[in-house]
Each structure stands twice: as structure tokens, then as C-alpha cells.
Amino acid sequence: MSLSETAYAKINLALHVRGRRGDGYHELETVFAFCEHGDEIIVQKDDLLSLEITGPFAKQLDGQDNIIAKAARLLSEICGAAVHLTKNLPVASGIGGGSADAAATLRLLSRLWTIDLPTLEAQRSLGADVPSCVLSQTMRGSGVGEYLIPETPVTGTPVLLINPGVALSTAAVFAQWDGTDRGPLGDWQSGRNDLEVAARTIVPEIGSVLDWMSGQRGVTIARMSGSGATCFALFETFAARDAAHAAVPSGYWAMASTLR
What we know:
The chain is an alpha+beta fold and 260 residues long. Helices cover 26% and strands 32% of the residues.
């Protein structure tokens, strides 16, 4: 028997950075949303735990100590499983690829082995975004993104994701942040991404992507997700999104999807 799930791509509808903590992390306020598409994971019982990675971005991952293997070790019992990851999302791109992969693995193996999910604290040990990715629902996050409360769903919204093809280190972007608290996050639609300026300093192509997205017909909001470099645009209609998707400049990775 095999089980499969989508590791849903995550976007930050808004991301406010409120300050740098003494432990080196940053206080954040954000709203997470999730796309219907992402990486794909299949698991089946086996004598040992193994991981195979294929897909367009497989070569960018280290299978020997991948976050999927770390996630499996968090479960209370390891009964053995063959895990296959189809890596469809670019790596180090601000859309939670690794966190989503870990979350989907936890969901799948808990079903395969009929055991409970690990505690929230254990999930956070894999990364601050992992608990939100386990839920994969519209949520408001605070702290370093790990404290979650439900947010009004954005289910059914057409979305287009574009990445300029440049991996971007989260640590490097936070190090470039200017340290200015620009205020709390209220309504995400009138919010912002406080890491955009820092990310654009490192990868100027982000500005070109956002300028292009903002100029497309039917766009309601265009922003960078997370620490970049992936950007997203929300559209009024699927037809407008599809027209933009068809016109994406060559050399960019793009994915048309719908918010869950």
C-alpha cells in the first residue's frame, strides 16, 4: 500500500518584521496561505527508511540529510518506509518548499504507521514554518512564525508564482534587513513584506518580477513571499491569471495555482 500527498507551496500574504531578538531570531507578524500545488510525496512501508528524490529541482537537494529524513526521525516509532519526493518547487525560494515537504512527510507517515503527529515543539525544531505547513490553511502567525491562529480563508483565489531563478539565503536576507519596525500587521491586504527591500538588494531581479506582475491585467496584489526570491500575484479571475501565466518572460520559473 502506498499513500501520497501534495506538499503545498506556502506564500506569505504579508510579512512584517517587528524586531531582532536576543537569540538572533526575529519577531514576525505574517499571514500564511497555501497553494493547491507543490511538491509531491509518496510513501509505502518498507524494512528501512529510504528517500528517493526526482523532479526538476532534485539536483539542488542533499538526499543524505534532507529535511524529510529529519521529519521521519521525529515520529515516535520508525517502522520503515520508502519515501519518494518529486521536487517541483525551486529550493531556497521563500515558498516553504522544505517545510512543506517535512509537513507532508509527517502527515503521511503518521497515517502509514498509525501513530500520532509529533508535538508542536518537535515540529518547530524542523523550522518555524513547519507547524503552519502541517495545517496548510490560511493562518496568522507571530513570534518567529510558529504561534498560529486562524485567519479568514482565501480559498479559491487565483494565484501566479514567479521565481527569477536565483536561490536566496534566508539568513542573508535577514542580515540585510535595516532593523526598522514599520508597525504591526492588521489587514494583510494593506500590509507589506518588510524583507523585500533587503532581498532586492541581494537579488535585483526580484524588482523586475514585481514590476512585471504589477502591470498584468486583473492583478489585485503583487508581493514577494517570505524572504524571496519567489513573488506572487493574486488575480480577480482565472482567465486573467492564465493570460499572465502564458506571458511570463522566458527564464523565469512560474506556477499557476489556486489558494486552498
